[in-house]
């Protein structure tokens, strides 16, 4: 048995590349499901909304404690059917410094549960700022008081609009940490047609152009699954085969299953380089499973049931 | 004399639109300079690196206290020649929860100094996540424990890659707060050619297409300066006139002056709708002015001198 792919990183030499870690963990857990964590303080699971934070704490501190408790409960319930969690950074940032603390606690809890963490912030910026995002998400920051560890995510999402030089800095930071980058290629929202789908004078579309960049950034392709992946909306299954053609080794992060209308059965081409080639992201469809008609039992039981249903459906396809 | 454009917002009815607030403050302060704050814990001004945080505090807490002290000192030195500050969120996020606390302190100090705050995070995401970013940056988040105030920024930067529906949510959140949005259109880095400059089958480039979206999102144009602006790299002055043609009322945020090679003298078309139409962003050229050969005196004196030089140069042009 190889090294534990969820082990905390000791340094560059100690960490296998992200693609290897991902493929090993998908095989070990028999799951390609990524549990989206988008906590809304007004819609937390019962029993987590009053986690015992002092009533004299600020609203931000109390809400952040409740959000952290909710995320722990969701991970405990649905995590066993998943390979990773995907916290949406916006949902934590809106609670300020305590919210960032809740994010850090959620990352630790997910790692303790044996899950990878994909930080969903869709960052992108010029050189010096991109380096700072790399330090924040997967690296550490040297300071006169000692190194400050970042979030310790195993991968993060990135936005390609500003060009390849901005992505390269993020990819370099990720590689040094044994982490991965999922670049937005063709997303699951209706607005994907506005920029991503634009036909180019040279042929193809903006998203096909970005897909080639993603493939290039993932080279050399010395592993079955690259460290540079793509965010590919599950709501446009007609594109998945073309994406796989353009990015043969990239792991695809496939949001849009469930609440946004995508069906896991439409995603078969994603799994061509191996099961870890297609990661099926689901958030509301798992966390809110209890609220849908006919779902039985507690939020935790309904979430576990829906996550297991998705897991089995994806596993059977690949 | 009208209402104080830097006054803290009491609610939607109490706040004039961002374009009006910006134009009034530019006129009052006779400045179009935006002070970029990209604090690197290894390169803080002397005297701010040991701000008296307890030696038993964590490295993150000590570094965050030093960063906050540095930003206060920079604002006190260069702020009088500026109309706004632009904190780079990545530089604070890399210090975790204490870093977000330093960001909040920096926002408060800038407001106390009479400056607007443009939060530079280049966010962009689908509906529910975009709403969360709006809450985090310019709004507030309802929770069972009371509303949690966001950062209280006066404007923020946004990434258009995922399409108009993602921008609309951010623009709506901003309008409700009397805040503005600066959308990436054509940035100052070499990689701008990779996606932004791509020629489209229908004619024009990706950035020209995005520019039309920015103009549309800023409508109705009932003020001289719209609430929806554009990030327009000062390193490509040949594009500025075309951008003004496509976005007649958008305020332009012009990074790249100084350290990235842009010259304020090349930016005249930006100022066509009025002086507030062109905001000149400078970070390292101001904060590191003392490190350049020939600059006299303390970091504070050198920063104040460089900010004033830029202010006078831009003001003379418009």
Low-confidence stretches of chain A: 7-12
Task: Look up the CATH topology of chain A.
Answer: TIM Barrel
Strand-residue proportion of chain A: 5-15%
Q: Output the number of helix runs of chain A.
A: 10
Largest interface: A-B, 76 and 76 residues
State the helicity of chain A in percent bands: 25-40%
Assigned CATH superfamily of chain A: Aldolase class I
Radius of gyration of chain A (CA) equals 19 Å
Main structural class of chain A: alpha/beta
| Broad CATH class of chain A | Alpha Beta
Mean pLDDT of chain A: 91
Number of strands of chain A: 10
Which strand order spans the largest sheet of chain A, edge to edge or round the barrel? 1-2-3-6-7-8-9-10
Task: Please specify the SSE layout and strand pairing.
2 copies of one chain form a homodimer.
Chain A: H1 18-29, E1 33-37, H2 59-78, E2 84-87, H3 89-93, H4 96-112, E3 116-123, H5 127-137, E4 140-141, E5 148-149, E6 155-158, H6 164-176, E7 180-186, H7 206-217, E8 228-232, H8 240-246, E9 252-254, E10 278-282, H9 284-287, H10 299-317
Helix pairs in contact in A: 2-4, 2-10, 5-6
Give a description of the structure.
2 copies of one chain form a homodimer. With 318 residues, chain A is an alpha/beta fold. Chain A has one domain: Alpha-Beta Barrel (TIM Barrel). Chain A contains 10 helices and 10 strands. In chain A, strand 6, helix 6 and strand 7 form a beta-alpha-beta unit. At the A-B interface, helix 2, helix 3, helix 4, strand 3 and helix 5 of A face helix 2, helix 3, helix 4, strand 3 and helix 5 of B.
